[in-house]
Amino acid sequence: MITIVAKNTVNKDYIHEFIKLTSKLIEESRKENGCKMYHLYQDNNNKNILTFIEKWENEESIRIHNESIHFKKIVPKLNRIQEKDTEVNLYKEIE
Fold first, then answer.
1. pLDDT (tens digit, 9 = 90+) per residue, 18-69?
2. Which residues fall within 8 angstroms of residue 44, CB to CB, at 6 or more apart?
3. Beta bridge partners of 7
4. CA distance 83 to 80
5. Is the pTM of this model over 0.90?
6. Does domain 2-49+60-92 have CATH number 3.40.190.10?
């Protein structure tokens, strides 16, 4: 199992647009083989920080996800309304 934590710092004027765009991404990603969990969270202390926390069965399922039509269509739109690049970390479950 691999957990992805993808932290996005969104321009304050585009938070609602970011959340709206992610709804389709989340819906389609949850249907993918190997997706065990896919959620978006908003930081309690800084509303501009929106973080995806995802759980995937293996690296192959992540690779397929990153090549999916919905990912390739939506993620570039999300990137345009962020203040800086997404910080993405992958974690392997050890216990």
1. 999 999 999 999 999 999 999 999 999 999 999 999 999 999 999 999 999 9
2. none
3. 51, 87
4. 8
5. yes
6. no
